[in-house]
């Protein structure tokens, strides 16, 4: 049984708030080292391109996490379920392709739970509702459209039972170090003893494997990165020439972070109407657009401890490229 999605987003059409977008773009492009936040990648076209990325042969994280979940589903859900009813909260659920591996198993074993997918995209939550109604009609679904924290606050106030929070896909990797600590501490503040967090993390590995995952031969990731400029053109009335910027990713093996940039291939000016402002780019000046952190298991354990969680179990793929870590509230 699926309930209608609850919409906590600022705008009811599920798009991000334009004023906040404009403010962030102004702040980011006014810096000496220009930057734009990766959180703005996911407009309609960006979400479509990310779906394509997940199917690329070079993009190993999705494949690896799929393997982790498929290979360990029984163990994972028995650790989730216990004997009592629980809320399964899926932060950034999207099409829930990976979560469905667990949902099918929970359904098969008739576990007592409801499924609460959370996503900023209203489109995605409506589609997921329909899909689950078809495929897994016995599962109780309450989708929430909105930002993670707003949704968690709503859940804290409206869903009283035990909670298992999913944060899959190494989405944590997009945050700066201090942001990921703030994020996990905030999640912790909405949880009680006995609640759990199940988080996907991309592990450290050879740069020869990591780099192509963010620089695929068919250019999908380049299009994904450049789409951010296209979005500024569309939503803020800018005139970025997409042919005069190039996708440029690098991996920093000491920090374990993949960094993506858009590099201006010539000296140029770009006007943004909504900001009533022109920005100058030197030849080969870069805009930083994304961090994707890669972790050691020790780092993940320490990150958890800092934020009030202890590791209950670690699940990995055969090649130890990716891990899903089950934390309990300390
Ligand atoms: C969705 C944040 C996990 O960082 O690997 C994929 C996004 N960016 N290719 C990642 C992404 C470029 C992805 N996450």
Please render the helix and strand layout as text.
Elements: E1 2-7, H1 18-29, H2 44-54, H3 60-81, E2 86-91, H4 99-108, E3 113-119, H5 122-135, E4 140-145, H6 148-158, E5 162-167, H7 177-189, E6 196-202, H8 207-213, H9 220-236, E7 245-252, E8 257-264, E9 268-272, E10 277-281, E11 286-293, H10 297-306, E12 309-316, E13 322-329
Helix pairs in contact: 2-9, 3-4
Bound molecules: N,N,N-trimethyl-histidine.
N,N,N-trimethyl-histidine binds next to α9 and β11.
Mean of residue pLDDT?
94
Ligand identities: N,N,N-trimethyl-histidine
Count of helix runs = 10
Global morphology = globular
- Compute the gyration radius: what is it? 20 Å
Portion in beta strands: 25-35%
Distance between the termini: 34 Å
Lateral arrangement of strands in the main beta sheet: 1-4-3-2-5-6-13-12
User: Biggest β-sheet: count, sense, barrel?
Assistant: 8 strands, mixed
**Helix coverage percent:** 25-40%
Which stretches are low in confidence, meaning pLDDT under 50 for 5 or more residues running?
none
